[in-house]
Write a structure and sequence with these properties.
This protein is α/β, with parallel strands linked by helices. Helices cover 33% and strands 18% of the residues.
């Protein structure tokens, strides 16, 4: 299982050309990506509506790298098995929905199927909400924008959450950052303790994605993170 000592670059397929998804998947893998970040939105938890299990299943047929599925949905308990069946290698669900069900039961369910379990925290949600789960989570995702739409500006005020996870809580799993990530802020994220970086427009909009990923890795390494790629 991937831990804090490996750097994970996860291009967000939300910024890909949906008419050419199989080609986009191949392009990101050739460019050196470690994971494919798949944003699932239900039109309830967030106002936007994106993809469901059938598209994830189609992606799993062409992807050689793991599908990192981010459930921006109100009821992950109802849908988690469908996304695992479709080929998700990791499932992330939001701390903001924990009042609707048993979070520990959901984490156990995900992990029992051999899938990476992650809890997500929105920018305005205190990081303390994840503390009771850290002993069982594989990853924590800190949102650096409000979830629901791509292209938003990175919020540096979330970086202390990552520092709290690493220094105060001693979390040694993966810490992922998602939202407005680019070559201009990736070093700050790495210095705080982030080791998984989700980027949409900064990578898919780059003239040369492979070169842009190399720039990411170089700046992460210079900030004290690993420049290597993930192994799982």
């Amino acid at each position: 299982m991937t831990g804090m000592n490996e750097t994970i670059i996860a291009p967000s397929l939300l910024s890909a050309d949906f008419a050419r998804l199989s080609v986009e998947v191949e392009r990101t893998e050739e460019a050196g990506a470690d994971w494919h970040h798949v944003d699932v939105m239900d039109g309830h938890f967030v106002p936007n509506l994106t993809i469901g299990p059938p598209v994830v299943k189609a992606l799993s047929r062409v992807a050689k790298k793991p599908l990192d599925v981010h459930l921006m949905i109100s009821d992950p308990w109802q849908y988690c098995d469908a996304f695992i069946d479709a080929g998700a290698a990791g499932l992330s669900f939001h701390a903001e929905v924990l009042g609707s069900g048993d979070g520990h039961q959901l984490v156990d369910r995900i992990k029992s199927r051999g899938v990476r379990a992650c809890l997500v925290v929105n920018p305005d949600t205190p990081i303390a909400i994840v503390k009771p789960y850290l002993g069982v989570l594989d990853m924590v995702l800190v949102m650096s924008v409000q979830p629901g739409f791509g292209g938003q500006k990175f919020r540096p005020d979330v970086l202390p959450k990552v520092e709290t996870l690493r220094k105060d809580y001693g979390f040694t799993g993966v810490v992922q950052m998602d939202g407005g990530i680019s070559r201009d802020n990736v070093a700050r994220c790495a210095a705080a303790g982030t080791n998984s970086f989700v980027a949409g427009s900064a990578l898919f909009g780059a003239e040369d994605m492979k070169r842009e990923i190399s720039v990411f890795r170089q700046r992460i390494a210079e900030a004290g993170g690993s420049s290597g790629t993930a192994t799982a």
